[in-house]
Design goal:
single chain; alpha/beta; 4-stranded mixed sheet; 358 residues; 17 strands
Length: 358
């Protein structure tokens, strides 16, 4: 059931106008695997256009593949909205774009600051992207309020919400010293102000980042809401797996959580892929939890692993009525993120109607 939201962030499974992506370029860290990663992006956009519109941000020196661009521009169902001459440091739109919600029934985009996961990388262009889309590009509807939270660092991948205003996050990210060093641990109101509709914060303590995770442990690599009552989460029964103890602690903590009216959540374990490594022998944070929900479909990262089909089957069972689509993300994970990390969905009504006209 889709419950009406008058005050609160919009869950990912609500109807969407579009999904935002940024096309990778040779000026970014993708340069050494650019052909493979553009192939992955092409498949993602091909799939998304079957279900929703796509907003594509393009660096000024990038040229899209002509055959793909022709296919996207003539798609019979949905529209490709291109914003070119749009410089960015990288393509992690989940953490750069705003959080979308309602406040007193009005559409709001909460524009938090972004400092590349605690000052790990450059973020000068990324941190201005939302304001450029609002005030230069007019991407968003005129009645969407731009709510300036730039004095607070918060990434979209750090939070998961359902339709009751219940929020999942991790202490390892919220209270990391280089994000908001003046915040007191446990003072969630520093992040989620009154009127934002966050009624209950589940701040997971028993987590640590998956190996290779630059984000310090984003929730979207670990545990995900798929409806108001159901959480899919990383799990393993292999005691030789390095993350075994951490994932057992995570499972125990999730089992202890209660909804706002005191009920336990329905918990569904997801396997983790076999260890993957980069060229320098460092383990990569491959996870099936980094899926994207859009209008009637779930795009799931897969890794040419024996657990791929197991994970896809579990997600199909957990989300009846959705088409579950595996996308080979072995190239994406080389830069320590995956499918959910490069996308940000925009709820229905938030994109300017002019942009959606065909």
């Amino acid at each position: 059931m889709i419950r009406e939201i008058k005050d609160g962030l919009v869950p990912e499974w609500y109807p969407q106008d579009a999904v935002i992506l940024a096309w990778p370029s040779a000026t970014m860290d993708w340069e050494y695997i650019l052909p493979k990663v553009t192939e992955c992006y092409t498949e993602i956009i091909d799939r998304l256009l079957g279900y929703t519109n796509v907003v594509l941000l393009i660096n000024e020196i990038v040229e899209l593949p002509e055959d793909a661009l022709r296919r996207w521009r003539t798609h019979p169902l949905h529209k490709l909205i291109v914003k070119d001459n749009f410089p960015l440091n990288d393509t992690w739109m989940r953490d750069v774009m705003p959080l979308f919600g309602y406040k007193s029934g009005k559409m709001v985009a909460y524009d938090y600051g972004f400092n590349a996961w605690g000052l790990k990388f450059a973020s000068n262009w990324d941190n201005t992207a939302v304001r450029r889309l609002f005030f230069e590009q007019q991407l968003f509807a005129v009645d969407v309020l731009h709510h300036n939270r730039l004095d607070t660092i918060l990434e979209g991948g750090a939070v998961e919400v359902n339709g009751r205003g219940e929020l999942l996050t991790t202490s390892s990210v919220l209270w990391e010293a280089n994000r908001n060093p003046n915040f007191l641990i446990g003072r969630h109101e520093s992040y989620f102000e009154p009127g934002m509709g966050v009624n209950l914060v589940h701040d997971l303590q028993q987590t640590e980042p998956m190996d290779g995770d630059d984000t310090d442990g984003h929730i979207d690599t670990i545990a995900r809401f798929v409806n108001d009552d159901t959480i899919l989460y990383n799990s393993t029964d292999d005691p030789t797996e390095r993350h075994y103890e951490m994932l057992k602690r995570l499972e125990s903590e999730l089992q202890s959580l209660r909804t706002g009216d005191g009920r336990p959540y329905r918990l569904i374990p997801l396997p983790i892929p076999s260890p993957m490594y980069d060229e320098e022998g460092c383990r990569l944070p491959a996870t099936y939890a980094n899926f994207l929900i859009t209008n009637g479909a779930v795009l799931v990262p897969i890794y040419n692993d024996s657990q791929d089909e197991v994970a896809l089957s579990i997600i199909r069972d957990a989300m009846p009525g959705y088409e579950v689509i595996g996308i080979d993300c072995t190239a994406l994970v080389q830069q320590h993120g995956s499918l959910h990390c490069i996308t940000m969905q925009v709820p229905r009504g938030f994109i300017h109607y002019r942009e959606l006209e065909r």
